[in-house]
Design brief:
This protein has 131 residues and is mainly alpha-helical. It is built from 5 helices and no strands. It is globular and about 70 Å long.
Length: 131
């Protein structure tokens, strides 16, 4: 099973080693977000946004950042961003949301719930008779 905590620590270590004193690097950014096109959003921030807006994407193709309005993206980032070094904050939020979503504690729909799903290797016999 994928170890999300190990992935979180690895990602945090990466961002901790990135310069925070260069304003045109994402980890050193000190301004206000005003993306005008989805293709301008760095992958590291896209990963956060896809997790953050997961429920709003609903049954659409989940990995399409274009499903999220630029106004919502800019507003979200401006609210959470605290200046240089904020990528660590976004990483922590992203992994917390992902951990919660993966735990099944949210209201996500299990598409196989209630279905018997035999595999080729199993001898599972489905009883379709009503009691």
């Amino acid at each position: 099973m994928f170890d999300y905590e190990k992935a979180r620590q690895s990602t945090l270590a990466y961002w901790n080693n990135q310069p925070q004193d260069i304003p045109f690097y994402i980890n050193g950014f000190t301004g206000t977000f005003a993306y005008s096109d989805h293709s301008l959003i760095p992958q590291s921030i896209q990963s956060f946004l896809l997790e953050y807006f997961w429920d709003q994407l609903a049954e659409t193709r989940r990995n399409h950042i274009t499903s999220i309005s630029l106004d919502k993206i800019n507003s979200c980032l401006n609210e959470l961003w605290e200046g240089p070094g904020s990528m660590q904050k976004l990483v922590n939020i992203m992994y917390d949301i992902r951990k919660f979503r993966q735990s099944g504690e949210n209201n996500s729909k299990d598409v196989l719930k209630g279905y018997h799903t035999p595999t080729l290797d199993s001898n599972l016999v489905v009883d379709t008779s009503e009691d």
